[in-house]
Structure formats: C-alpha cells, structure tokens
C-alpha cells in the first residue's frame, strides 16, 4: 500500500514493508542511504552494498551518469527509471538541476518520450483507463494506494504538444506535468496521479506497432466519448471531492467544451487554454517594461485560433478591459489567424470560442491580399500593424522572414512569441528573429532555445512556458482548498509573474525570472492565486493571514526521513 506522509510535520516514517518490497517502493526507497540501524530493522543487509551513502552523494552519482549519456531521449529514459526507483533521489536531482533537466523531463524531450513511450515502458505509473473498463472506474479508483491523491493530470492523448494523436503513448504528458508540480510547486509525489483516458487512437503507426501498449481501436468520438469522460469525472468527484483536476492536450473539439462542462463541478482547469493564456499574458505585461507601449495600445495577432490561441486572447482582452479599455474597442485589437486565414464575420465552421474574436468585414475592406481567397498572416501584419505576434499553431516556420521583417518595419520593439511545442514545431527560432529584426525583437518561446548574443554578451531566451504558471496555480488552490479555479485566479497568476520580471527594474534584462527560480516563482504565483480565491469567496475557514503558512506547509522538499520499525 502507498504510504503518504504529512509533508509539513512528519519527522519519522514507519514503513509497513521490508526487504525487497521496501527497496521496490519508489516513495520509500533510499538506496544506499539506509542507515545501519534501518538495515537491521528492515532486513536490508546483503540487499545493498555495505557503504552507507547520503542523498547529496547519490545526486552527484546520478548526475554524472546522466551527463555521460549521448542523447536527450536516453537521458529522459534514465530519469524516468530513476523516478520509478527512488522518487526522493529523482526530485532532489531535478530540484537542484532544474534548468538543465527541465528540457529533459518536459518539453521538448517529452515529445520524443511520448512517441517512444511503448518502447520505453517498463513499470506502471498512474492509471490507464480504457473504454472497455468504463464500468469499473469506481472500482479502479477505490484502490487504497490512491487514498492521498490531491492532484490529477489527465489527457486523452489526442493532441500531444504539436505532435497530434499519440493514443496511450500520451501518458508521458501527465507524468511530466506532475513531475513539475512536485519539482516546482512542491506537491508531495504521493499526492499526484497521472491519468490517460484511452479512447483509442487514429494514429495508424500506433495501431500497427506490435509494441503499442494502448487499446487497439480507432478513436471513439461523439456521445460514447462524452459518456466515458462523464463516467471518469463523476467517479473522481465521488472518490476525491476536493481534488485538483488538470486537463491536458485534448483536441480543439473537446478542450474548451470539457472545461466549460466541468469547471463548476470540480476544482479544475485546462492548462493548454488557461495556463498558456496566463503565461502569455504575464510575459506580455512584462514586455511593456521593454517596449514602453501600454497594454491598452497593443494590437495582437495570434497565429493558431484554436482553444489555446483564443484562451490567450481572452485573458489579454480581460487585462485590457481591467486597464480601462472598453470591451468592444479591446476586441477590435485582436486578429486571430487559423488555417483558413483571419477569422472574420460570415465565416462558416467556427467553434463557439472563436466567435468573440471575429473581425468585421468592414475592418478589412480595401486590404490588398497576397492570395484573394483568404487573409493570411502576412496580410494581417502589413495592414493591421500588430505590436504583438503570438504563435500557437504548431506550424514550424509560420513566422517567415517576410512576416517578421514586416513586424519590424512598424515596431521599434516588436513582441514576438513563437510558443508552439516541442522545439521542432516553433513558428520561428530566436536566432532568426534576432537576425530579421536587427536585434530589436522582444522574444519569448514555448520551448528552450540556445542563448542569443546581444552587445557581445550571452542573453538567455525567455522560455514562455506554462511551467511558470500551473505549479503555482495548483499549489495555491490545493493549499487553501479552493472550491473552484477561475479566470480571475489565472489573471492573478499572470500579474504575479509579471511582477517578478527582472525587466521591471532594467529594460535590458529578461522578461521572466530564470528557470532556476521556478520554485520561488511557484510560491509567488500560489500566494496570488490563493488570495484571489479568497477575494472571490472560494475559500472557507482560512483567514487571510493564514494563507501564506498554508501554502508553505504544502511545499515538500526532497530529503530522506529516518525510519522506525512498526511497534
């Protein structure tokens, strides 16, 4: 049985396991760090080398082994094995080396990890819930191993990063996200649960792969799909009434409608929609320190008018309105471009969440178009003259040299955020943006890129990644037992992130704090989110002066605790 501990007050653990069973439990295993007395108590002599180690030595040994590997995928597999062997050591290594290891544990390497998930699969982690087991979900969740769960990340694997349908191989995403909840947000790993809703896949490579671990069936859609999701959500609500449920990498056709359907039933959010919106808004607010252009004067072009793109536009619009701009005027400042071009009145086949951002036909009359059949991104840049260009299209190279140079023609400091993941799907590289704008672009990317050279010195590229937001949102909501996660809480997170920007004090510095400070950022965001939840009346029985202590009490630091034998 999984043993959860009080992460705030536990000083000693009393394991119910011994011998090989104790060593095989990743939450309890210390490896060579078991003391002589603990080896006596739990029958570990002979099962371990005689040397008694300490955590820092183990971290050093594992880091040396990791760095000796040749490829990032090998490093990803190495870390996943370590996580399944000794979670305390895994998180100590990750926390101490977060800047180096974040691109391995999560984007961009997690994309390759998902593509190779079935081949790398060694040990179960989390829950694989498939359509044939729909009527057993309550029974599966009832396992006492999951008694302490406080945070769930769930995907159906249909839109994994920019890679599309990966089926059950998409389980790598919830595992990676929850690793960041612990490494950055401080949630104890025993309280986290990754889940894949295996509804089949339309990826024929997966179905034809003899090693594929998922349900071999074409992807289920329509009412049958909705009924399965409903069965899952209802079972989660019965099992853990106050759990945080994060939706991850659902396709455009499901992401927004599932969020709208369940956001008032559970403590839940969609990171692709709301987390992406929050980090983009926070980074844009920080960019104002560099460009000097007030938010209410920005004009925003978004390439990729799906749920993520429209989520970004919605939160920036809210910030503009809070800044004093009339809502109708604010909406006119957004130009949403999708595969069929700029979204305008009269277009068919639009999703409900796209309709608030349609440009009026009158606004584009007289535009001279490159291709008369649609209004492309270049047309928008030339005629609307946006100050901000954001990419969430998953289309590499979508920000061409011509488009970027056009942005630079009418902006002294054009703000350009190619946010698509993984790196191979980015709309442009920072190096190209730097070259095409003569070093004037204010850049933020979704995945890590090598540093630029500015004024003869290395300049780190701001990674405008959700890891700046969701760990803190989850930590804050869980710590104060918020009843819901609202858009207001994500706005508070964005403003907190902007408030932590180094560029506030020096416009030549980065927009975002360094990745090495993600734990500190998560605390700052958590505090802002919890205080906003209190303002919105979503917290019971916690006074404002108890919010910060409640958050700190939830933050787990990876260290070995002493063990004692059962009495």
Explain what you see.
This protein is α/β, with parallel strands linked by helices and about 575 residues long. It has 24 helices and 14 strands. It has helices at about 20-25, 35-40, 55-65, 70-85, 85-95, 100-105, 110-115, 115-120, 135-140, 170-185, 205-210, 220-240, 250-260, 270-290, 305-320, 325-330, 360-365, 375-385, 400-410, 430-435, 470-480, 485-500, 520-535, 545-555; strands at about 125-130, 150-155, 190-200, 245, 265-270, 300-305, 335-340, 340, 390, 415-420, 440-445, 450-455, 455-460, 460-465. The strands form three sheets. A seven-stranded mixed β-sheet has the order 8-7-6-9-10-11-14, sandwiched between helices. Strand 9, helix 19 and strand 10 form a beta-alpha-beta unit. The protein is globular and about 85 Å long. The model is unreliable at about 5-10 (pLDDT under 50).
State the main characteristics.
alpha/beta, five-stranded parallel β-sheet, 24 helices, 10% strand, globular
Secondary structure category? alpha/beta
The main sheet comes to: 7 strands, mixed
End-to-end Cα distance? 18 Å
Q: Give me the Rg, rounded.
A: 24 Å
Global mean pLDDT: 96
Give the oligomer, counting copies of the same chain as homo and different chains as hetero. Answer: single chain
Q: How many individual helices?
A: 24
Strand order of the largest sheet: 8-7-6-9-10-11-14
Query: Beta-sheet strand percentage?
Result: 5-15%
Shape estimate: globular
Would you count the extended β strands for me?
14
User: Helix content range of the residues, please?
Assistant: 40-55%
User: Which parts are unreliable, with pLDDT below 50 for 5 consecutive residues or more?
Assistant: 4-9
